[in-house]
Amino acid sequence: MVIPAKIAKEWLILGNDDYIHAKSNHKGDISIEKRLHTHKHGQNPYAVIICCSDSRVIPENIFMAGIGDLFVIRLAGNVIDDFGIGSIEYAVSHLNTKLVVVLGHTMCGAVKSAIDDHHESFISSIIKEIQFAIGDEKDPTACSKLNVINTKKKILKSKLIKQELQNGLKIETALYHTHSGHVEFLKK
Ligand SMILES: [Zn+2]
User: Fold this and answer.
1) Where are the alpha helices (DSSP H) in the chain?
2) Which of 34, 88, 136, 166 is the Cys-Cys partner for 29 at CB 3.0 to 4.6 Å?
3) What's the average model confidence in pLDDT over 6-29?
4) How many CB atoms lie within 10 A of CB 99?
5) Which residues surround ligand 1, an ion (CB under 5 A)?
């Protein structure tokens, strides 16, 4: 089943509206039936979510999703590497997913470290990537937005993904507000 990007985005927005006032993920289907159905028939995720490893940013809860709904790629600072891009390629070419969302968030530790120029060891590779994205910007929220735009640009380096844009694929950028729980879809 192919779920068009427009419908997938509506489901994400509706799920997020529900999440903002929820106490548990009552809408995401994690039943035995769903588990067995996806086990037998495979997965058909309606969206790919690229987000930060931050424990406050939980895509399946933020969008009230369950088993088989979201194809998630998580690295600190929602950066993307070749493995991540390959994962997106797999979802859009083999699982027919038509919506990719690069989801940044407010109060991101990786973004803050990039602004403060504080890093060491392997963390440096993440921070340098974010510093490239934010340039001279110092406002953390503005930096988080610039960072998701950079990740989207990197994803578009994939010829396979670019090709899928002709087949209804949409790539959106968004920002998760850690205080309100709201996901703000961005224009770029
Ligand atoms: Zn973060």
Assistant:
1) 5-20, 32-41, 59-62, 82-94, 109-116, 123-134, 140-155, 159-164
2) 34
3) 96
4) 25
5) 52, 54, 108
pLDDT tens digits along 67-88: 999 999 999 999 999 999 999 9
**Ligand 1 midpoint to CA 77 (Å):** 5
Sign of CA pseudo-dihedral 92, 36, 23, 111: negative
Residues 6+ apart with CB under 8 A from 46: 3, 7, 8, 11, 69, 70, 97, 98, 99
User: What amino acid is encoded at 143 in this protein?
Assistant: C
Q: Where are the domains of the chain?
A: 5-185
CB 168 within 8 A of CB 97: no
- Please tell me the distance between residue 2's alpha carbon and the centre of ligand 1 in angstroms: 31
Sign of the Cα pseudo-torsion (83, 84, 90, 93, in order): negative
Provide CATH code, domain 5-185: 3.40.1050.10
CA distance 182 to 174: 10
The CA 105 to ligand 1 mean position distance, Å, reads 6
